[in-house]
Write a structure and sequence with these properties.
two-stranded parallel ribbon
């Protein structure tokens, strides 16, 4: 992931995620300086009540349950607010395609 973040930074590409995704991604075995460096390269969007409502709408449209798809739905809601072409890199490619449809580019990691 570090190489991808360096490349994106060098190309002037903004990298963002949600505060919920940080919680999901954290591993107790993480090397803290590397984790902090990665976070310094990422714009972290809070999951507000407004984002939550948009995420619920996406879940409803896709016929998915929040218990399993909450974090992906929040990420999708934030991504869909961004202007221009948006690409989501994820290990949950199928889930995010269900939530975003063809409104963003979804790439599997």
């Amino acid at each position: 992931m570090g190489a991808r973040l360096k490349e994106a930074h060098g190309l002037g590409i903004r990298v963002m995620t949600t505060s919920m995704t940080l919680i999901e991604a954290y591993d107790v075995r993480a090397y803290i300086p590397a984790w902090q460096w990665a976070l310094s390269r990422i714009r972290i969007e809070p999951v507000t009540e407004e984002i939550a409502k948009e995420a619920i709408s996406l879940l409803r449209e896709a016929g998915l349950h929040g218990h399993k798809y909450a974090i992906d739905a929040a990420l999708a809601a934030v991504a869909l607010r961004l202007p221009g072409l948006v690409t989501i890199f994820t290990s949950d490619e199928d889930d995010l395609r269900k939530l975003c449809g063809d409104r963003v580019v979804v790439v599997s990691l």
